[in-house]
Amino acid sequence: MDGIMVRQVAWEQYDEQEMQKVFAFAEDYKRFLDKGKTERECAAEAAAQAEALGFCSLDSVIREGRKLQAGDRVYCNWMGKSFMAFIIGEKPLEEGMNILGAHIDSPRLDVKQNPLYEEEGIAYFDTHYYGGIKKYQWVALPLALHGVIVRRDGSKVTVAIGENADDPVFYISDLLVHLSQEQLAKKASVAVEGEQLNLIVGTQSLKGEEKDAVKANVLKLLKEKYDLEEEDLLSAELEIVPAGQARDLGFDRALIASYGHDDRVCAYPSWRAVADFEGTPAYTLCAILTDKEEIGSVGATGMDSHFFENVVAELYAAANDSYCELGVRRTLRNSRMLSSDVSAGYDPNFASVFEKKNAAIVGRGVCFNKFTGRGGKGGSNDANAEFIAEIRRIMDGANVDFQTAELGKVDVGGGGTIAYMCAKYGMNVIDAGIAVLSMHAPWEIVSKADIWEAYKCYCAFLKEAKAF
Predict the structure, then answer these.
(1) Which residues pair with 338 in a beta bridge?
(2) What percent of the chain has pLDDT over 90?
(3) What is the domain partition of the chain in residue ranges?
(4) pLDDT tens digit string along 268-280?
(5) Which residues contact 465 (CB under 8 A, 6 or more apart)?
(6) Per CATH, which fold does 108-242 belong to?
(7) For the structural domain made of 10-106+259-464, what CATH number should be given?
(8) Tens digits of per-residue pLDDT, 165-194?
């Protein structure tokens, strides 16, 4: 790499004591991944951890009319799909917050509202893919079914099938290679069509049924186990994800292979950085774990909605003697944020799409992206140089291994994060995340060293970032 400004390899900096911390933190993260295969499960797990750590629900603060004081810890589980945690600082909220923001939704397959049908003795769930996927990667894999089903009366059934050793799994069949001449001649984007992603859910027929006997048997099983009718699937959110736990990868166990690294590999250390903060901070601290980023941050639980602004308004009202709209706007404007999202890891197998000196290298620490977007930085935040200099100061002071990157070559790569949606308030924002190999595949790969450096980065930012 002659002529390239090379950042140091994180692994080479660790003594034995820190190496143990790297691997211990990775184990915590793997447990979070296994408990949080969906955004609902991630938000629920974060909320449960918050309660155990003494965080109080913001809803209860509002209901009881309590006034928040410096050092108070509160959280909000927004519609069960987005999570926010705050530690109230000594300085007034108008001086801004130090914010870490990540997303907890990941590419997957969603079950359609009217999904169950039978074809030639096989019962299927019809699906619609969510986010950017290579559809051919989702066939011929053991798959799990997670989500909720809400009955007409409002009662809720939680479903998680395919993760335990004695659970059944589900499957989308692929065409055998002997008959695949036509399929193999197609472009990869259409080798498997979206309407072919049909999930096999049963093949045993119900005795006595003359029509759709396999479908009838599936409905019988759903009734027996969950007390569900077919119509209850109309009000269901069922997600199809790869079955199985996060696993160490390689002889050295330095990597983790798992579903959902994008973006839970940033969400978990972001939440932990707030949860692990000791004492009372100077500025109010905030972790945001948001939904819907993979489809544009839309909807009531996506960052492009007003849910975060509304929660900050409630926080402001609870921390002050009176509510002030201008005070809320100043709080948001004066805040500083790391948009914690992943970067495309440089892959030597596909080197032609990367510009190496501006690529995220696995194992070289947390990665800062000044801008994302596509085609001339379209849809990008493009952070200010002054803010980047402040970030450099903080990282160097905390001995954090970091690197900078872009998402592939100019006019080749492209993508976005929640950064520009938060920057619209006038706050300084930069993307800060982790290099991922095989991003958006059913199984993605990250480095344990990068996870640890991201956690160190987020902790340092919360402690040291200030108005400038």
Answers:
(1) 100, 430
(2) 87
(3) 10-106+259-464, 108-242
(4) 999 999 999 999 9
(5) 98, 283, 336, 390, 394
(6) Aminopeptidase i, Domain 2 (2.30.250)
(7) 3.40.630.10
(8) 999 999 999 999 999 999 999 999 999 999
